[in-house]
Amino acid sequence: MSEHFVHPTSFIDDDVEIGEGTKIWHFCHIQSGAKIGKRCSFGQNVNVSNNVKVGDGVKVQNNVSLYEGVELGDYVFCGPSCVFTNDLTPRAKYPKGHAGYKKTVVEEGASIGANATVVCGHRIGRWALIGAGAVVTTDVPAHALMLGVPARRRGWACECGELLPEELACSKCGRKYKLRDDELEEDI
Ligand SMILES: CC(C)(COP(=O)(O)OP(=O)(O)OC[C@H]1O[C@@H](n2cnc3c(N)ncnc32)[C@H](O)[C@@H]1OP(=O)(O)O)[C@@H](O)C(=O)NCCC(=O)NCCS
Ligand SMILES: [Zn+2]
After folding, report:
1. E strand or H helix at 179, and its extent?
2. For residue 78, which of 94, 92, 95, 66 has the smallest C-alpha distance?
3. Which protein residue's CA is at the shortest distance from atom 20 of ligand 1?
4. Which of 6, 15, 34, 94 has the fewest beta carbons under 10 Å from its own?
5. If you take atom 7 of ligand 1, which residue's CA is the nearest one?
6. How far apart are CA 18 and CA 35, in angstroms?
């Protein structure tokens, strides 16, 4: 058993892996088959569904459900009350079951703003920044700043979180980037 913290109001089902240093706060439910990395933090009222994989150093703020089909890379940030989905055309009368779920992959370091919605079947690229209240309906390139409904790319974000100027050099941390195949990559 790894050393992690679970508040007594939370439920952890059988067959769950939780990495060392991870903290699970009030009223959470982690369902069977979930694999959670090290040093993560889950705020109040977070649900992690069956078989969901979460990397290391991930922060999930209050009131977030990670449905089956969602995968979070290392250092992903999920803002309060952001919403994932796993069925593009849901019907109560005709449930699709596991086979009908579409995947959503959030890559390393990406942040999802408060109350944003991610429509399933898309990939959110490394270090992308999704603004508060955005509705993501497309794949998101690495480092893209996505805003609005539907979300459109309105700029680029540095790994440190600062929004980048046109020259793609961060005024805060000094990292430099270049465009390659419509995505940003660090220019080392
Ligand atoms: C996107 C964001 C980083 C921009 O911050 P900023 O650089 O200070 O932006 P500004 O407030 O100067 O706004 C710039 C423009 O973008 C618009 N804008 C800002 N945030 C927006 C959002 N989430 N959705 C749509 N438009 C937005 C502003 O209305 C403004 O438009 P205008 O130029 O037509 O007037 C910020 O607004 C945001 O959404 N951050 C996420 C916060 C969050 O959810 N945190 C979760 C943990 S607490
Ligand atoms: Zn930076």
Report:
1. strand 177-180
2. 66
3. 131
4. 94
5. 163
6. 6
Pocket test for ligand 1, best of 147, 154, 164, 172 (most atoms within 8 A of CB): 147
Is 124 a pocket residue for ligand 1 (Cβ < 6 Å)? no
Residue identified by tokens 């509705």 is: 135
- Confirm or reject: Cβ of 155 under 6 Å from ligand 1: no
pLDDT (tens, 9 = 90+) of the chain, 188 residues, equals 579 999 999 999 999 999 999 999 999 999 999 999 999 999 999 999 999 999 999 999 999 999 999 999 999 999 999 999 999 999 999 999 888 899 999 999 999 999 999 999 999 999 999 999 999 999 999 999 999 999 999 999 999 999 999 999 999 999 999 999 999 999 98
For residue 108, the SS3 value is: coil
Q: Is 135 in the pocket of ligand 1 (CB under 6 A)?
A: no
Task: Report pTM.
Answer: 0.97
- Cα–Cα distance measured from residue 72 to residue 124, given in angstroms and rounded to the nearest whole number: 10
Q: What are the distances in angstroms from CA 116 to CA 63, 72, 78, 133, 137? A: 12, 16, 9, 4, 11
